[in-house]
Amino acid sequence: MSNTYAVIGDPIDHSLSPNIHNAAFRHLKLDHTYIAYKIPAGELSAGIEALKAIKIAGFNVTIPHKIEMMKFLDEMDTTCKIIGAVNTVLNEDGKLKGYNTDMIGFLDPIKKKNLTIKDSQVLLLGAGGAARAIVTAMVKEKSGKITIVNRTRKCKQISRVRKKNWRQCRYSFNTGSQ
Question: How many Å apart are CA 132 and CA 136, to the nearest integer?
Answer without folding.
Answer: 6
